[in-house]
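Hello forum,

I keep getting stuck at the same step: I have a sequence, I want structure tokens, and every attempt I make locally crashes halfway through. Rather than fight my setup again tonight, could one of you with a working pipeline run this one for me? It's a single chain of 91 residues.
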Amino acid sequence: MDLQIEVVEIRGECPVFKKGDSFKILDGYRLKSDIELCLHSLSAIMPYYVALSRGISPAELGLGKDACFVQCLDPCEYTKGGTVIFKITNL
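Reply #2:
Ran it on my machine without issues. Output:
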């Protein structure tokens, strides 16, 4: 199952993403993006993308009802960076 990852919120100031940016994970392992990606943000997605791409629901993972929500690891309150909230859905 293919996944779409969309930036739905940014707390603070992210130097890479803006609200509405998106990229895809195809076939459960191929990353497809027309935008630059932040490696810190990928580390937040990594624990879940295999399960989601295999059809396990966000509710079963405790990460949302119809979509999965995760955030990058940058604690913007302390780093003056930006914490990005991602919405992961099936395509």
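The chain has one domain: 3-90. If your local run keeps crashing, start a new thread with the error log.
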